[in-house]
Amino acid sequence: MLDNSLGSNRLPLAAGVGYKPQHFTQILEDAAPVGWLEIHAENYMGDGGRPLAQLRHLSEQFPISVHGVGLSIGGEDPLDADHLARLKHLVGWLNPASFSEHLAWSTHDSHFLNDLLPLPYTDASLARICAHIDQVQEVLGRPMLLENPSSYLAFAESTWSEPDFLREVARRTGCGLLLDVNNVFVSATNLDFSPQGYIDAYPLEKVGEIHLGGHDEDEDDHGHPLLIDSHGREVVDPVWALLDYVLERSGPKPVLVERDTDVPDWPILRSEAARAHAALERIPA
Amino acid sequence: MSVSQSTFHTALLDPAQPVPDGLFDAETRPAGRRFSVYRNNVAVSLTEAMHQAFPVITKLLGTQNMDGLAGIFLRRHPPTSPLMMFYGAEFPEFLAGMEQLSHLGYLPDVARLELAQRRSYHAADSTGIDPQALAIEPEKLMTATVEFAPAMMLLRSPWPVHAIWRFNTEADAPKPQAQAQDTLITRPEFDPMPHLLPPGGAEWIAALQRGQSIGTAHETTLAAHPDFDLGATLALLLQGGAITTLNTERPQK
């Protein structure tokens, strides 16, 4: 157990964007009002070349958040020791302002499935995830943030609500939380709960970072709305409103705008970051 | 009723499998299409990764055919590491094993060239020697050995792989003619550059990689290629920063 979970999070209370290499030059020329950048850890685990050179350059000018998508913290299998070693190497030389991962699994039986797959919330999964987070924090020598997933379905076996589950993980391991507001909105729509009710139950005092993203709209077999967390569109108004709802209760937090597919030109991403920045400025520190 | 990750995993990769029991919507009706979101995410993201990794193969086969092949490939060879930058290492062998593609015998080597470019792109940085370092006594030069940049790659093929690659990536490139081609990839800074090697060039570089001295490698190569032009191959290596060390003291192997 590591104490002071938010103390090692050095992200500024400002808007950041998910870094995409096609924006490299424009970010260096015109980054206002972007206060920090987030990278996906796995894209910077090669031995050298342009990705690492760009990252070294950016890290001289921006606080960097390292966001892992491949650790499979929720996996039934032990954590991949090679992958954990690669992560330790990256976090070691980069010394990022924050490290975060997902409440999800992606690897089973040595197959990496390249998606964030869902978990039941049970005492057994809780114990397993806490053991994995303890191991990650021990290897990295720093606390991490854990992100809530987008849910498309529910497990019959779950006995914990997601906010309670996350609160208990944070209490047992000392980790902080990454609150993805779009994921809350997506899950709430898909599984018929109130997003505000989720936020009311969620341990906002543990939040070290907030994510915002876009989603696609579909329907299930019964014509029920089914939102898909695609990170491929702009953030919708109800998600912006939910961000305000969170910030009014949590106070200012580092807020990230994410776009991973159909990545727009820099000015569009920059204007979304400006909107997130404006939302932060409305909140008294 | 618990759903193991093993059950979930199997059903994800095999659409013929039923959706696992114990997965519901908010009204405890079976998940049905909701499970397909995950199936779709896995298949679409891995197919997209294959398109990005093998743009020339995709162009040669057409997007629809590549989608179909990727769909088979990703189920037979799911990634074994979260480093998607290296996904697809088994693709050349997979292509070689597809009977319906046997009339396109060059495809596996084209895929190997695309894999080699990606490995070069992510290889460790290094600094090439100054060409002036070679301005030493000829005897000393001939007994020297060299070390190559991690980003340098060599691909030997009985097919005109370099010409096929050019024809599908450059405007106005000449049409490929039937011939064997050896390709050298260098990475002067960050962008891998495939170069066509002159006859003998690949043998000479391979001999140097085995630790032979410049002179011994030259003699070995001349035996098979009397017209081998050492200067042209050396210039490609030097211009691409591919020689990182010249060992003049080490005894010749």
Entry keywords:
heterodimer, A: 285 residues, alpha/beta, TIM Barrel, two-stranded antiparallel ribbon, B: 253 residues, mainly alpha, Outer Surface Protein A, domain 3, 11 helices, 46% helix, elongated, DUF2063 (chain B)
Instruction: List the uncertain runs of chain A.
Output: 1-7
Portion in helices of chain A = 25-40%
Strand content of chain A: 15-25%
Kindly report the spatial arrangement of strands forming the biggest sheet of chain A: 1-2-3-4-7-9-10-13
What's the alpha carbon Rg of chain B, rounded to whole Å? 24 Å
Please tally the β strands of chain B and state the result: 6
The topology string of helices and strands of chain A comes to: EHEHEHEEEHEEHEHHEEEHEH
- What would you call the shape of chain A? globular
User: Per CATH, what is the topology of the largest domain in chain B?
Assistant: Outer Surface Protein A, domain 3
Query: Which word captures the global form of chain B?
Result: elongated
Strand content of chain B: 5-15%
Number of strands of chain A: 13
Assigned CATH class of chain A: Alpha Beta
From the helix content, strand content and strand pairing of chain A, which structural class follows? alpha/beta
Largest sheet of chain B: 3 strands, antiparallel
The number of distinct helices of chain A, counting runs of at least 4 residues, comes to: 9
